């Protein structure tokens, strides 16, 4: 059983599972159908059924390998099926594009919503370059009905295909662009994640594939810290939900000035070390990209609770604690108690990051990481060796750095992964 803190969704779904014997029904029948009216008895269905990432699933779903999908307007099916797809590893190559000089209504240095990310990618020619179609024009977007279609989805236990029928489920398309030879459907997220809900591409694909006599290209766009990452997929079998395969993947940036190794070394030479923060755990957050992405999400909102961050991001509740603590360690995020719950927010130092261009922002991140002794000394050792030091050497540096509340060697070794992860992020800036 999981020892993660329970969210409001966890508690409400426990009541629903108990009242409707959901696990028993799934065991006996292979699935369980539930209506939004039933879900609303304990919590709003809109909040109880939106799980964009596998890590967002309630604990009872996770423990029993269950997922949930809409099958009509207000009705859902719960079963042991594989609803998510893990992103393929992104390459490190970044193609730089030019932003039109005459566009003043978009600040591409501060993109805080999916809609702005999509509009920026369109006007800067990213979509045209990625699809190879320079005649793309915006056509369909927003909420609409899925119409009716059938499909099969993979059972997570035995690998067999489960038949499902969808009738007029509500879908939402973030952006649709039609060219001479195809329709491109965009699903966008202004955050970094490990996986995505296939439904977000598959349901719109089925709707428009039935309506057009030209190909439909499902594309997933992620945006964070100035990088647009695009993934084009194809469904190799029309009625097989899990048959998607990656066609191509590219990364783009509008930032005109690249960061060089000299820029990074200049920051390193000028760093003034600070004392380790008292009372804040040493970070256990291996991906610094996701620390940045969390700051972007908090910049978009005045305050967010732990549950808010967990629902909006590809975190479970434990990871939310780790990454908010990482932001607090750097002085970018703080927390306060408000109406009986803990809320997280950007400090003035964190907010100031979004008033400068992305190159300056990233170099400030480098400075604030290297201000801390274990990161500084590990980076110094990296430069001497021209490679990442062994984890045992990083642990030795940590043990001589007066870190807060780390006892067991196993804890040191886990936290050492954060140091190597953040140092690798610094080095990747100039590659």
UniProtKB/TrEMBL annotation:
Pfam families linked to this entry: DUF6996, DUF6997, DUF7226
Domain of life from the UniProt record: Bacteria
Domain DUF7226 stretches: 290-430
The DUF6997 domain, residue ranges: 80-253
Record domain DUF6996: where: 10-78
Family matches, as InterPro entries: DUF6996, DUF6997, DUF7226
Name the record gives this protein: Uncharacterized protein
């Amino acid at each position: 059983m999981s020892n993660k803190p329970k969210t409001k969704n966890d508690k409400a779904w426990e009541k629903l599972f108990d009242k409707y014997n959901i696990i028993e029904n799934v065991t006996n029948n292979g699935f369980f159908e539930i209506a939004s009216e039933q879900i609303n008895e304990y919590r709003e269905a809109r909040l109880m059924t939106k799980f964009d990432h596998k890590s967002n699933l309630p604990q009872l779903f996770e423990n029993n390998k269950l997922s949930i999908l809409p099958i009509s307007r207000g009705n859902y099916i719960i079963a042991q099926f594989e609803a998510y797809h893990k992103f393929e590893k992104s390459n490190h190559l970044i193609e730089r594009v030019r932003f039109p000089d005459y566009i003043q209504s978009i600040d591409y240095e501060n993109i805080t919503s999916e809609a702005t990310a999509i509009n920026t990618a369109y006007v800067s020619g990213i979509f045209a370059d990625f699809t190879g179609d320079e005649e793309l024009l915006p056509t369909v977007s927003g909420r609409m009905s899925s119409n009716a279609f059938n499909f099969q989805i993979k059972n997570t236990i035995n690998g067999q295909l489960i038949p499902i029928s969808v009738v007029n489920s509500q879908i939402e398309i973030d952006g649709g662009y039609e060219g001479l030879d195809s329709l491109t459907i965009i699903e966008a997220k202004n955050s970094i994640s490990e996986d995505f809900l296939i439904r977000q591409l598959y349901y719109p694909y089925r709707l428009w594939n039935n309506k057009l006599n030209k190909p439909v290209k499902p594309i997933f766009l992620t945006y964070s810290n100035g990088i647009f990452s695009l993934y084009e997929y194809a469904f190799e079998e029309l009625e097989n939900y899990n048959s998607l395969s990656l066609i191509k993947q590219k990364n783009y940036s509008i930032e005109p000035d690249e960061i060089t190794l000299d820029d990074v070394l200049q920051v390193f030479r000028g760093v003034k070390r600070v004392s380790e923060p008292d009372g804040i755990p040493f970070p256990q957050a291996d991906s610094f990209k996701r620390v940045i992405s969390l700051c972007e999400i908090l910049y978009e909102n005045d305050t967010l609770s732990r549950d808010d961050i967990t629902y909006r991001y590809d975190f479970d509740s434990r990871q939310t604690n780790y990454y908010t603590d990482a932001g607090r360690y750097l002085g970018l995020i703080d927390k306060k108690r408000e109406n009986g719950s803990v809320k997280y927010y950007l400090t003035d130092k964190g907010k100031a990051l979004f008033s400068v261009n992305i190159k300056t922002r990233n170099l400030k991140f480098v400075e604030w990481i290297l201000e801390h002794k274990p990161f500084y000394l590990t980076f110094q050792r990296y430069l001497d060796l021209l490679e990442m030091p062994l984890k045992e050497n990083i642990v030795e540096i940590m043990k001589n750095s007066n870190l807060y509340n780390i006892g067991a060697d196993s804890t040191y070794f886990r936290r050492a992964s954060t140091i190597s992860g953040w140092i690798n992020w610094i080095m990747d800036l100039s590659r």
